[in-house]
Amino acid sequence: MRSFFFYFGVISLVVIVVGGSFCFWKFSPFIFAKSRSQSLSHSDRSAISLPEPALSGGISVEEALASRRSVRSFQDTPISMEDLSQVLWSAQGVTDREKGHRAAPSAMALYPLTVYVVAEKVDGLSQGLYRYEPGHRLVPVFDGPAKDRTMTAIRQPWIMSAPAILLISGRYDDLRGTFGDAAEFCVHAEVGHVSQNVYLQAQSIGLGTLASGGIDGDKLKDAFGLPSEESFLYAMPLGRPQEGR
Known about the structure:
alpha+beta, NADH Oxidase, 9 strands, 38% helix, SagB-type_dehydrogenase, membrane, Nitroreductase
């Protein structure tokens, strides 16, 4: 009888520890995130010009491809404005000013994507949410700590450790008149182009990232008062990888 209670106690303890750990992993972003019912603090500050991107780097495309990995753990150190600028340029920056072409290909060059930055620890940039404009500047959308508010809409707790997060949204209606039922495919393909650019650019400058779905777009739009026609498709944390990633 004693052995029965002993083994019963051991099994119960294991269930509590494993179950508790899983629940913490799954729901900690929502436990620790600030309520999205807090009043919004929309910014009326003017756009912020970003440093000019570099057009040559220290490693080749082949080296970046060979060493690229998804990163889920980041150092608790800020990233520089120069590095953020470089990554944003790789995502949606203009590469042909005369024709308006950008770094990532787009069906019929209609560019239905928008890239936002959740800035937590970026040297020279206040905490908040910013919209990237392809003219290479940031437009403030929300002033103040924005990561906790973002995490109410994202189910990947590891994103919490990143000093910055890129949020990529698409507007299907921008393409429906041209592509009809293929509009969603074109938007999704373009998100893939952008995320690969971000992966390779981040790798080339010593940063890491992860293409992460699982976004509750309605919660995210409610949290920041973002346009209803945008569909949020990817969250890409950005920072210096921890050893062992």
